[in-house]
Each structure stands twice: as structure tokens, then as C-alpha cells.
Amino acid sequence: MNPTWTTGTLLGLAAGAGLLLIWARLPARNRPTLDDRLAPYVGAPTDHRLERLLADQVVTPFPTLERIVRPYLTKGAASLERVLGGGASISRRLEQAGRDQTLHQFRIEQLIWGAVAGTGAVAMSLVMLLRGYSGSPVLLVIFCAAVAVGGIVACDHRLSAAVRERERRMMAEFPTIADLLALSVAAGEGAVGALERVARSSRGELARELYRALADARTGAGLVEALDRIADRTSLTPLARFVDGVAVAVERGTPLADVLRAQAADVRELRKRSLMEIGSRKELAMLVPVVFLVLPVTIIFALYPGFIAISTVVP
Description:
Blueprint: H1 3-24, H2 34-42, H3 47-55, H4 63-84, H5 87-96, H6 103-130, H7 137-186, H8 191-201, H9 205-218, H10 223-233, H11 237-252, H12 257-313
């Protein structure tokens, strides 16, 4: 591409960005709405006030830069929520991941991921233009937009991966927690006392959930209701059965130690089956390098001396 065109393109982009910023900050476009003017006198928590309260919290490691771009992040997060939707699913996954993060903060994080990815794509496009890219500029624009969208989607996938990893840790901790509860109950502790002892002496995601359930029970909710919230915050079937067993034992006074030991044994058997399934898949994956790398090299080493001998004997 001609250097003159490249320089003109860069200057045009800079001028367009400046005009866009001036247009975005015009006083006519930033007038307070009727809800904002009435909110201090009515006291109703409108959506705009809630967004401002949430925006006051720092969500990035660069607080000064974040305060500068905070109004744009807040509006962009609200626009992203309106475009993507699915706020209920995001909120549930945030609870399942154990994050102290609101939906608005997660949308801001998604926006930052998309902005960083888009900025990297724009930098790569500028480097390609400076090195004489001869293709259509429309393809570069599409590439930058696709990378920005990919950053937003990658942030969402990262949340789903965090949920799966946390549930995996909870399943790994479940047999030990169940055995400790069974020992405490067999030693004469009640259900509440056993839960408090295990939650106080254990570390991990499941112990944290038990501690949260006990805190909910102390604030007025019943123990059964607090335990049911654990099952609602996770999608693990063994944990739901464990909560149901503890709830039934608390309500009806049935023996709890045997139920907990049986559930711990079931979870250990489930982990054994899952490990065997993972092992079988790994065996199939190991065949790929053996068949396509090791075996051809072995055949070549076995046949190459014969080919050399034949080529030297044949005149």
C-alpha cells in the first residue's frame, strides 16, 4: 500500500476518534434524565442510580485509569447487557463460581476483555498496513470486530470454566467432608454442631459453602432452607442428595451417620468411574502419536537399510 494512503488513513482515524469523543461529551447529550433529577427527593433506587453505585467500585488493577473511563465503561456495560441479555444465567453462574461479583461488574469485565482484544487487533492491522498490506481494508475492520467479539465470548467461557473447576473441587472434597460429618454425628454431635465443627476446621469450596449456609441459618433462615440454597447454587446431583439427606435427618430425627457414609461411598465410586472414563479417553489420545509418529519412524528405520542395500547391489 502507498505510504501516503497509510498516513492519510491513520490521520483520518485519529480525526474521526477525536470528533466522536467531542460528540459523545456534548452537554446536550449528557443532560440528566427526569429519574435522575427526582431520585434524590423520592429515594427510589432507579437503574441509573444502581449503575452509578456499582460503578463506584474498582474492578481493575488500574484504579486511576478506571476512574477516567468509568462513565464509558458503565454505559458500555449497560448497552452490552441489553444486546446480549441472559442476565439471570450470568448471575447464577457467578454464584456457582463463588465470585463476589455483580452482573454489572461482570459486564464491565467482558467489555474490558473485548476492548483489549480489539485494541490488539487494531495494532496488528496498523502494522500490516505499514508493512504494505494490499488487501481490502474492510477485511481488517471485520477482523478487528471479530477479535473484539471473541474477547467478550472468551470472558464468558472463562466464567463457565471457573464454574466447572469449582464444582470439580467440591466433588473432590465431598467424601472427606461427609466422613468428617459422619464422625462428628457418631461422636454425639447434632447436625448443626457437626456442620459448625466441620466448617470451622476444614478448608475448601464445600466447607465455605457450609459456612455460608450456617451464616444464613444464624440470620433467621432455617437450617433446611439454608442447606437447600447450597443445592440451588450448584448443579451437582450428589451434593443435592447430601443436602436432602441432612434436611430429612434434621426434620425427622433419622440416623445421619449411616446416610453420610453411604453418600461418601457413592461419591468415591462415582470418582472411580469418572477416572476410568478419563483413562480410556487418554488411551485413545495416546494412540495418535504412536500411530502417526512413532510407527512411521520405526518402519523407516527398519526398511531404510534394506533399501540402501538394494540400491548398492543393483547396478
